[in-house]
Every structure is written in structure tokens, then in C-alpha cells.
């Protein structure tokens, strides 16, 4: 049996048609029930809200594979999986295009003031004197050169941007892009976009010290993990006018509380963790993960559960 504890594209479920499947997109909220279902499961598919740790895995003695509908692994204890010889399926690169398109769309929307001008016209204001900016010849600094970082680089270069990349773990960063250290990435950045995983090394890599090194004109873009940014430090930088702004699709706390301090600033643009949520990306992720988990879990029957 394969348990799916969070939302999955219907094509992913279709890819599991040869298996007994227990699908409940809200199951992650009922941990006792999830544990009960896992007692007979050989496969588990999750997004980012199911906490897959030793406690949960102890309730799943037959589990052979865990599939993650996304690339972030901060909700999954990978060591616990390794200790139990449970395979982990991650669809690296499946939503890279979606996230890269979001980054470029967000930069264009902000720098060309598209949303702001649309609201003005709807209100009867026809003002053509507003200041806009092109992306061409501006410097885009990219932290992380995985599939998403590479997709962003390709699109930014097509716009004629000056692109710089820092990733000490990526051996194939082209010489024209690579900078030697973190400080070099921050210097002279017009835009800084984050595409690194959340680790002990990267947590709060954007902090008071980092923000002081960025030019005051810089706009920060985060579509990776909210915990990469010390949000209190970002608030302080915005309050003192040391930032051009921020585009944040992910947050330290999701969703943020009702008194979210970052929502006060007109040069901060916020979206609800949707950068990778295109129909096409979710379809590709679901099919990729479901097919591999089904293969690893083994066929146990031909009737889908409910």
C-alpha cells in the first residue's frame, strides 16, 4: 500500500493505478491516523507539511520508499531513512523552470511597476511619468547553481543581465559566472536571488552582516527556503533604508502571523510559496515521484483505496 498524506496532482495518482493507494491531502494534520495507515504501507508520498522522522518511521515497519513532492528536505530526517534503508525519491529539477519564470516575472513586475500602474489606471489615473527600470545590464547575483539556479541564469542572460554565481559545492559553474566567495557575490549586486538548500550552513545566511554588504539599492529575492533569511535583520535593514526591497515567496513561518512586520513595507512583495506551483511543474513532479515510489514499493494489488 502507498500512502499519500498531502495534495498531489491527479496524474500522480494515475501513475499509481497498479497499487493500493490511501490518498488524503489532509492526512498530515492527523498524525495518529497517519501512523495507523503506515503500519501496512510500503510507500509514503509527502509534500512539505508531513514531518517524516524516526517516530513516524517506527510506525511503518514495511516502508521501502518515501517520495517528496518538491526538493526541500527540511521536513525529512534523511539519516533516519538511511538507518532503516528506506529510499528517498526527490524530483530534482522538475519545478526549476516554474521557479525561474517566477523570479524573472517578479523582477519585471517590480521594476516596470506593472501591478502598481494597473491599479492606478483602474482608479482613473493616467500617469506616464512614473520611473521604471530595465533589467538589461543590471547585476543579478545568484546563490546556488543547482537546476533552479541554472534555469534562472539562462533566463537572466537572455535579458542581457550581468550574472554572478556563488556555489562552493557546484563544480561546473562556468568561469564567466563564478565568483570566488560570498562577499564577492554581494558586492555591487542589483538583485540577489537565493537558490540554496536549507542546511546548518545556509540557515540565516542572509543576516545583519550580509545585508550590510549589499548595496542599498539591492532587491533580495527568495524562492528557496524562508529560513535562509533572518527576517528580523531584514526588517531592520528595510526600516533604515538599507535595502531596495525584497520579493519573498517563502517565509521563516508559513503562513506568517497576522501582524507580519514585513507586510508594512511598500517595497516588499509577498506571495504564498507558489513559485513552483505551476500546473505543468506539479504534474511533472507528481508523475516522477509516484512512478519511482511505486517501482520501489512493489506492486501489492490492483484496487485503489479511498
Describe the structure.
The structure is a single chain. The chain is of the alpha/beta class and about 300 residues long. The protein has helices spanning about 10-15, 30-40, 55, 80-85, 95-110, 115-120, 145-160, 180-185, 210-215, 230-240, 280-295; strands spanning about 1-5, 20-25, 45, 65-70, 85-90, 140-145, 160-165, 190-195, 220, 245-250, 270. The chain folds into two domains: about 1-90 and about 280-295, NAD(P)-binding Rossmann-like Domain (Rossmann fold); about 95-270, NAD(P)-binding Rossmann-like Domain (Rossmann fold), CATH 3.40.50. Helices cover about 30% and strands about 15% of the residues. The strands form two sheets. The protein has a six-stranded parallel beta sheet with strand order 7-6-8-9-10-11. Helix 3 links the parallel strand 3 and strand 4. Helix 5 crosses helix 7. The longest helix has 19 residues, at about 280-295. The radius of gyration is 21 Å and the shape is globular. The model is unreliable at about 300-305 (pLDDT under 50).
Amino acid at each position: 500500500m502507498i500512502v499519500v498524506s498531502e495534495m498531489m496532482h491527479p496524474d500522480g495518482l494515475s501513475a499509481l493505478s497498479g497499487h493500493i493507494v490511501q490518498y488524503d491531502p489532509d492526512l498530515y494534520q492527523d498524525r495518529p491516523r497517519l501512523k495507523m495507515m503506515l503500519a501496512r504501507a510500503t510507500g509514503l508520498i509527502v509534500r512539505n507539511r508531513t514531518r517524516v522522522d524516526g517516530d513516524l518511521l517506527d510506525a511503518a515497519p514495511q516502508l521501502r520508499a518515501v517520495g517528496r513532492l518538491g526538493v526541500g528536505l527540511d521536513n525529512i530526517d534523511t539519516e533516519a531513512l538511511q538507518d532503516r534503508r528506506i529510499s528517498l525519491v526527490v524530483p530534482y529539477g522538475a519545478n526549476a523552470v516554474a521557479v525561474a519564470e517566477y523570479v524573472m516575472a517578479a523582477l519585471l513586475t517590480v521594476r516596470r511597476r506593472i501591478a502598481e500602474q494597473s491599479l492606478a489606471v483602474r482608479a482613473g489615473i493616467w500617469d506616464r511619468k512614473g520611473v521604471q527600470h530595465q533589467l538589461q545590464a543590471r547585476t543579478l547575483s545568484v546563490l546556488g547553481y543547482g537546476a533552479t539556479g541554472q534555469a534562472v541564469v539562462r533566463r537572466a542572460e537572455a535579458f542581457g543581465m550581468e550574472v554572478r554565481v556563488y556555489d562552493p559545492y557546484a563544480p561546473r559553474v562556468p568561469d564567466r559566472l563564478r565568483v570566488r566567495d560570498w562577499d564577492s557575490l554581494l558586492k555591487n549586486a542589483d538583485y540577489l536571488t537565493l537558490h540554496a538548500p536549507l542546511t546548518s550552513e545556509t540557515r540565516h545566511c542572509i543576516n545583519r552582516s550580509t545585508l550590510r554588504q549589499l548595496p542599498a539599492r539591492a532587491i533580495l529575492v527568495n524562492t528557496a527556503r524562508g529560513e535562509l533569511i533572518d527576517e528580523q535583520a531584514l526588517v531592520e535593514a528595510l526600516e533604515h533604508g538599507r535595502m531596495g526591497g525584497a520579493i519573498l515567496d517563502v517565509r521563516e513561518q508559513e503562513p506568517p502571523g497576522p501582524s507580519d512586520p514585513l507586510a508594512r513595507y511598500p517595497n516588499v512583495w509577498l506571495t504564498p510559496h507558489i513559485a513552483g506551483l505551476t500546473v505543468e511543474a506539479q504534474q511533472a513532479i507528481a508523475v516522477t515521484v509516484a512512478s519511482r515510489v511505486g517501482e520501489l514499493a512493489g506492486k501489492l494489488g490492483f484496487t485503489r483505496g479511498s
